[in-house]
């Protein structure tokens, strides 16, 4: 029987920083997916001009939720790189990694694609791109992003395709140099693409979804995975790293504000707006690791966030579909029964009903679709 020490058993003892299961990272997933849910539910694709000033301000605050994707990227870089580093000596290194990734990702992903087909929400070309995990590259071929949330999953899949080869063959020290270059070149790529878009009158063409314009969050998480595995690493260095990362995030944001970092409608903002959020996400990750392995670990493990972390993958996949279906149903009901709600009430009713539906579907997906495949992962990839 696998032993799991409880908080009550070791109230004052520090746990190892790196453990086979880290509940505080589930909580971070919960924070990330709640942010994305609020963003798409209350801000995304919404005209704020009909709302009162205070209502519009509340909805604008929800736009911060979009940066939950940055937290997902940092977490993914940290976890995947950690898995790769810890299994470098295995003979089945590649087979084990890709087998486990397939069991984790593919079932719910292809169910999502099936639902898009059944509800007529995707074009054949976008479906093909998505089946090949390249939905984020659709704009390159003039194909509209029928279901936008899939773009970030494509970025991660491309990362999974390339990074294991580097992690297997390159020393951790050299990997840090590669990652450092990515941290510099990715914002530079975004800057160049913005300039190109302005020069060619193609602003909004989807350049920001391309994989090479979204590697810095993954790279930063990977850096953390490498440094915390150093033989001389300790808790003091961990909390220092969290503070440094937070300071970098605040500094870049503060310095960038006069140069337009608050909007991606200019080159500086397009290049750098994600950067402080990446560093803030990294600081949160390291801080949660520090607290989550110490005597105050309960702080990082609230039940609600753990639950949302548990269903985060499915909720990320399904939530936008729930909002789209709600819009369709609410429109038909409004016409048939002449129901008229204020925009403010309708926004929150949509968030409550569609959001709750998405949570329910995500739970059922995790419980009855994803978990059985994850059980295969644990039994067949020892």
Walk me through the structure:
This protein has 382 residues and is an all-alpha fold. The chain has one domain. Helices cover 68% and strands 0% of the residues. The chain contains 14 helices and no strands. Helix 7 (172-199) runs antiparallel to helix 8 (216-227). The protein is globular, with a radius of gyration of 21 Å. The two termini are 16 Å apart.
Q: What does the overall shape look like?
A: globular
Show unreliable segments: 1-10
Major sheet: size, sense and barrel closure?
none
How many distinct domains? 1
Order of helices and strands: HHHHHHHHHHHHHH
User: What is the structural class?
Assistant: mainly alpha
Q: Provide a count of the helices.
A: 14
Beta-strand portion reads under 5%
- Helix percent reads 55-70%
User: What is the end-to-end distance?
Assistant: 16 Å
Nearest-integer average pLDDT = 93
The count of DSSP E runs of length 2 or more, i.e. the number of strands, is 0
Rg estimate, integer Å: 21 Å
